[in-house]
Every structure is written in C-alpha cells, then in structure tokens.
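#struct-queue
[09:14] JT: dropping the first one here, sequence first, then the structure tokens:
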Amino acid sequence: MKLFVLLSRVPYPLEKGDKLRAFNQIKELSRKHQIVLFALNDTKLDEKAMTELKKYCVAISIVKFSKFTIFFNLVRAFFNGKPLQVGYFYFDKAQKKVDELIAKHKPDHIYCQLIRTAEYIKKYPHIPKTLDYMDVFSKGMERRKSTEPFYMKPFLAMEYRRLKRYENKVFAYFTTKTIITEQDKNFIPHPQKQNIVVVPNGVDTTYFKPIVHKKEFDLLFNGNMNYPPNIESVEYLVEKVMPFVWHKFPNTRLLISGASPSKEILDLASDKVIVSGWVDDIRMNFAKSKILVAPMQISIGLQNKLLEAMAMQLPCITSSLANNALGAKPNEQILVADTPEQYARHIIDLLQNEAKAKQIAMNGYQFVVNGFNWQSTTAILEKLISRK
C-alpha cells in the first residue's frame, strides 16, 4: 500500500512528542507500506533529518514557511473563525504541493497527524483517510484558561471554543480516527467518539534502557522546555515543591533537561537547579539522575518522559492527571501526587529509601517493557489503515 503521511513538523530530531510519535510510526509502517511524506517546517532543517527519513520513506517533500507567512496565516484564521492552531499551519503554497503529490503518487490511504493538517485533505473524500487526533487541543486550552494571566483569558477562551468546534467538524473528513489515550478520547466533542481507536505511544527499549552511571543529580525533569505545560510544571516544581525538599535536604540538585528552554526556565537556574538545554544523547541525563519528577498540571496525551524514564529504570513521580493517561499502578509502578506537600513527601521518601526507589523503578520498567513498544502500538494503526 502507498501511504501518504502529512505532518505539521519534520519528524526529526526527536525532541518533541509529535515528532517522536510520527517518526516511530513511519519507521514501523515502512516495513509493509511505501511511505510518501509531506511535512511543514518553520525552523532550520536539521542536517541529519533527510538522511534519517530516507531510510523509511520512498518520497519526502518538506515545505518551509516564513514568519511573514505565519503572521498572515494567523490573521486569516482569526477573521475566518478557524482555530489559530489550524490557521498557523495552513497556506496556499503547501496546499498546492499536497495536491501535486496526491496527483503524482495516487496514495491508497492518507494519514494526518493532528488536526493542524486536516484542512489539506478535506477535498479528497474518495481516498480513505485516518486522522491521529493524538491529543485533544481544546481540553489543553481549557485547562490553560485557569492558569494563565487575566489578559490572556479572553484569547484562550476564544481559541478553546474554536478548537472544540473544529475537533467535532473534522471527524467527518476521515474514515478512521486515532488518539493516544482513553482519557483524551473521552474529551473529543463528537457523539461518535466511541469509534476513535486508541493507539498509545511506545518507547524504543533497545535505545532507552538502563545505563550504569554515577548519579550527579537527585531529580530530573525532561521535555521540550519551550512548551507551556512543561514550563508551568517546572515552575510548580521549583517554586512550590522544592522548598519543602530543600528544607529537609538542602543540597538536593534538580536537572531540567530538554530543548529550547524558555526565559522563564532559564531564570530558574541556580546552583541547585541546573538547566541543560538540548543534549545529543538524552539518555545520559536520565542515567545521571536518581528520580524523574513530572508534576504535569494541564497534561493532555501520554507523557513520553515517563515512558523513557521507566524504560531506563528511574522511579517516577507524577500527577493523577498524567497517570490517568499512563495507567500505571500508584505506589507500585509509579508514585502519584497532586499537591506540593505530596510531591515533596514522595521525593524525600525515595531519597531516604533506596530499596523502595529500586522497587518502584523495577516495577515501572516491567510495566513499560511489557505494554509500550512501538511495534505493538503501531500494529493497531497498521490494521486500521489496511482495512478494505
């Protein structure tokens, strides 16, 4: 089968969740199908991207767009009533390229990741199509309304309403729909949401595996550090949780690891809070740390940071919201907290009790290895797109 894949970002390097999911799904799907990849790009293309993607794709088209195009897209979306999340990524030059590629390759199936790419294919009702909602943008926007400054609330409320309408509208464009978690599936605003198929993320356990290394940091937070939910989580961790921990253990060191740290994150740096930025091999930051803490406040989707840390046998502490998506057993495979005091108690407990930390880590490792690998999760998707 010839599969046409549309992405809002080039899926390399793997520093963002959507890139990680797309890259590994393409890798697995390429075993049985010819992949024609179309991706948008608003940043400098990584020098290794084409080399890596050519391993799995028979054709690759990348359309770059400028800051001027982005501004024009956002203005147009604002006035035509579309979500800015959608308008940002839609422009005529890219539509023409999509049309050319579909005419040239005559794909048997179209696979779109995120509602950002849905506009490009709505004119092709005769071709079977799958939309990976992945996350529920409207729910994430709704949660942000309660945490952002007052002057942002009207804008967020507008975007929330538009996203909710659009998530409902695009349902009809596609033959099949997928999403990462059951929790997110239940948030989709459509009466037939029960037909959405859950396709979880996986983790490459041949890459993310236990590495013996001297522990230089007590705690780790890892992720795209320019992403608002991650920024908010780190601010919560440093400003609300760590004072309790430092009161008990003044020398506790926290490593904030991940690409593109924002000004808010850089401002948190100190002798006890180390901001690493992008690193070539993220596994080493996991290996250097004792505990992963992910106090996600407005989490949507499945947190890859938890999967990767568990695969490397780190004990993990996260929120009820994030663990609802993951489905690990609290106090056995993971520790769950919802207040600064609860997070601090868990951290202090694991720092004091090495045996407990090792047991949580081992249980979490078995949980991920047995239930979250890209081969088995992408097999669910492959079955859907191969359906006649």
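[09:21] JT: and here's the second one, same format:
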Amino acid sequence: MYDTLRDIGRDIGLLILRWATGGLMIYGHGWGKLMTLMEGQGGSFPDPLGVGSEISLALTVFAEFLCSALLVVGFATRFAAFNLLFTMLVAAFVVHAGDPFGDKEMALVYAIPFASLLFAGAGRVSLDELVRRSLRPSQDD
C-alpha cells in the first residue's frame, strides 16, 4: 500500500488539511449560514452573482457546509474543493472587492488549502480512495 515513509506523511498531511479546513469552515462559517437559511432569514445576504440573496445564501451553504463535510470524509474531494475555492474567491474579490486587505484575508487564507486539495486530491486516507479501490479490478485474478 505505502511505498515509502514519504507516502505515509503525504497522506496524513492531506488528512489533517482536509479535517482542519473542512471542520473549521463548517464550525466558523457553514453552520451559522445553514441556520440562517433554515430560519428563512437570507434576504439580507450579499448577492454577488446576481441570482438573488436567498439563492446566494443557499449556494454558500452548499459550499461552506456540505462541501466542507465532503472534504472532512474525503469524498468527491476535488469537486468539493473546487466549490469551496470558488466561494472563497468570490468572497475575497467580489463581495469584499472594495474593502481593505484585512477583510479579504480570511477568504484568501481558506482559498489556499482548497486550491491545494483541488490539485492534490484527498490522499489515501479517504472515501475517495475506498471508492477507487472498489472500482479497480482485483489483482488476484
């Protein structure tokens, strides 16, 4: 399974990255927005894409809550990371376009690990890897 200690370190690093960024995003951002959406109070949410405040909130909840949960378990990791990266870039460069750098910084700090996971994938300690192995033909034949 593992060729070198470097492989183990890489996969543990990706696991920590997924757990930390996904978990922090759910706790610090996604959960509150999910509660706002469930309470029907999305009317004042920013509408950076011109689709309406409630739809913008729903799309943000999709990314910040659901996609973050997918990252935590390592399922559809690149899909989830793409949606989270897109959301963070919209937050930084559209929602906070005219704001000082400090207001953009948190979105940009989150964008970095999401971009990394988009390119690196989930690693071997993930549901993505379990699915990949179950779809691969058996080597015993």
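[09:30] RK: nice, looked through the second one.
[09:31] RK: The chain is about 75% helix and 0% strand.
[09:31] JT: good to know. The radius of gyration is 17 Å.
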